[in-house]
Known about the structure:
This protein has helices at about 5-15, 20-35, 35-50, 55-70, 70-75, 85-100, 110-130, 140-150, 150-165, 170-180, 185-200, 205-210, 215-235, 240-245, 270-285, 290-305; strands at about 305-310, 310. It is an all-alpha fold. It is globular and about 50 Å long.
Amino acid sequence: MKEAANGRMKGMLSTITRNSLAGLITGAVAAGLSNSLTLVSVLMVSFVASEIMTFDRSIPVLMGAGIGSTFIGVLMVYKITKYGLWFIAAGFFWQLFYHKAPCSCKIDVSHADCLIGLGLVFHGSEIMSGAFLFLRSSPGVLEFMTHLHGNGLYALFAGTLFTGIVQSSGASLAIYLSLAKDNLLTTRAGIGLTLGANVGTCLTAVLAALGEGPGPMQVAMSMVLVRSVAAFCFALDPMILKMLVTSLGMCTRPAVVGPHRDEPWQDGECVIAASHTAFNVIIAIMVVPFSGPYARLVKRVVGMMGYRDNKLLGSKAEPGLPV
């Protein structure tokens, strides 16, 4: 990638990340369109490893990507994702008749590719959420959900483990929202699982950074540190996030009755999705204005892990590279 990158590409990346706000917006748009924080984080690891981008500039992009990756949850709550096949069909016919249209009516065919891509993301989320409906009739799963309701840290660990396995916080969220919609998952447990999803999604970036030197590992650890600490704090009482999103009016749909009548239910599905967004907005507010000091903290932590210069301490240096 370093050899393929030219001055134009570096200049473009420098422009879109010229300040923290621009980087935040860039990350949010990129993750929102791709529905993948994992994709954006791996790209940041690759860019830093290839010296196309500096680690410091990647932090606002990663924080913005966290916010952008939550859009799919909001779309699922309001049933926008059920129109995924219509998006795919529209993109297909756009491409089919593109060459037959008069030159004056032609629109860039790449827009059709975007429609198809969004349609696949939406339809995939619907399939994923429907694939776990069998859990409604599983006594073991129902008992497990009851344990999650009583312990936010337990839910955090379970969500981290599950998302680390499936490698997608979006897929995890789709499953949790589906269970909440069927009243199999309480708001408290759902928020705890979603907090875990925000931590588990960092695993791919960590794996991509292994053996790539301190820069890429700093990118990965910048995600892990803030997400782990913030998720642990909120997992101590997940209902803090619920109170926050309801007080801000982020969930205004009619109330529903859940399996735990002692819990002040409003709309579990909506509250879980809104809490997911609120969590990522909160950590972005915590980090982006102080990205400089946070970058120095991450560098110190990575240095304590044994990373110096280009490789992990003790590894054999590449020819021509100082250690």
